[in-house]
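Today's session is about reading a structure prediction critically. Students often jump straight to the picture, but the first step is always the sequence itself: look for stretches that repeat, for charged clusters, for runs of hydrophobic residues. Only then move on to the predicted structure, which in these notes is written as discrete structure tokens rather than atom positions. Here is the chain we will use throughout the hour.
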Amino acid sequence: MRFIKSIAILLLLLLITSCYDYSDEGKYWSEEWTATMNIDGSEIDYLLKGAQTPFYVADLSNPGQEKIIMSSSSSVYSLNSEGTLWEGILLDVGNIVEISQDRTKMVMEYNYDIYVANVDGTGLRNLTNTPDLREDFASISADNSMVVYNQWPLNALDPDELNWISINGYNLNTDTETILLREETEKHTFIREKCIISDKIFYYKWYELNVKPRGIYNLNMSTLTDSLVYSCSSTGNIISNSTDAVYFLASSEGIVEMDINTFASHDLIGGKGVGFRGVLSFNPTYEYLAFCGDTNNGNDWIYSMKTGDIFYLPKPIGYATFNLNSTKIISVISRRHPDDF
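Below is the predicted structure for this chain, in token form.
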């Protein structure tokens, strides 16, 4: 049965990615493609038509090498460097939400459960397996020992049932789950993006009725106490590849860097007016940030944390990841007819 599913998915993807006539016929089309480009926006290489989310990850079969994997809502598969479909990795579980910092593991949210697997598809584990509950907004620690996520009532989208929410931690070494924080929501508490640094979890929490401040909160996993560390009306991704700072998008204030010990913060890139659709992603060597959002000049860009240089990209991008040497990014890119400008 698994072999039959593999063949079916391969045939479907080959059909989707078959050759397209980019002649003058049918002008004004616009499509989403998986593509790579240099970090300065040059040398765009369109690989695959479609909006599956791509990632550069470690090639576990070849130490020191990397490969491209792609995530749909129900499957994960890998590509070779030319963008040709190579093999199905996971055919029954998809929707990657995070790749570990060492790029060897992937965290997935599927059917309201949290899964973890190696990036080659081995070692798949359903961490929650809760038919009567839902889990989301998962994140994995830098040492791959802990996954944290929200847990809600299954019908939490019904306002009459949204009466509690918790942040749970799953220890991958001991196979144990712990409730780290539980809030009786009274129909107005929501917890979203997360990032784990050492024994701290940074996350965005907002209250629909404004009973408490909205903003970035810190949950200390040792003391199980949480506190507001940055007040803001909305945020985008919260990330860190370092041990002393966390980065997040704070509404129109821009990208904010926060010291995880003192909670002192400053705008890393000020005055950009990032709006509400910003996406942050780090590169493996912590040197660059990639950002997609409503900037003043309408461009997405890559920011060098070492030099302060900004590379404005010629095409809109989605969530971007960097290759091992931080020379390229891969993302979903909008592709338009050459004459449609």
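Discussion point for the tutorial: The mean pLDDT is 82.
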